[in-house]
Amino acid sequence: MLSGKKVVVVFPAYNAERTLEKTFREVDRSIVEDTILVDDASKDGTAGLAKKLGIHTVVHSRNKGYGGNQKTCYRKALEHGADIVVMVHPDYQYSPRLIPAMAAMIASGHYDAVMGSRMLGQNARRGGMPTYKYISNRFLTLAQNVMMGQKLSEYHTGYRAFSRRLLEALPLEDYDDDFIFDNQMIAQAMYMGWRVGEISCPTRYFDEASSINFRRSCTYGLGVLRVSFDCWKARKRIAASRLFPARVPPKQRGPGTIE
In the prediction, which pLDDT does 134 show? Predict the structure, then answer.
């Protein structure tokens, strides 16, 4: 518990057997009540190891994609009574030691979502982020900030924390099942007036850390620009869309919504 709120950590996993235990051992169990791993039809022993470690484990019978995995993660966390949900990749690329800090930002009531940013403090390059990934990340983030009217340092981190209220308000099942899920989720949350904070996060790039290839990175980048452009059109009242409606329904509005 943290300030009377139940904290649940979720691990969206695919072939994470080699790094899962190292990641799990750094989770602060003094504040984290439950840990949930969703195994997206891995080809290794991820699920078996998770069960051995005492992690509540859900196994997909077929691969549902990164977004599809997260949908299960958040649904299960809410079923377990989570007030705060922190998503940590089990590939040990992000530091689990920041879970208390991220959860505390949510528990404070000041934020509805918190992003662990690799770009604050130059953590990305020091952690070994490839040059092409660093440049594309910076370019996409700049483009998104301009089109969405925001000032985030990074939209593409896989380290995130959310309040229960936000997860219940967002139409998660309507989002894509692939990597663009992350971007749709945070873009719609900000459009609807939910408060998003950031924290500086070190990162590690090594052979066992997960990463999408160049072709899928390009597909993701184009998808990001499309989501941001749709948001821009809605903000300028040019054209609304499913993700960015002309009028936000009351049950989905965040405390920062401007009518």
Answer: 85
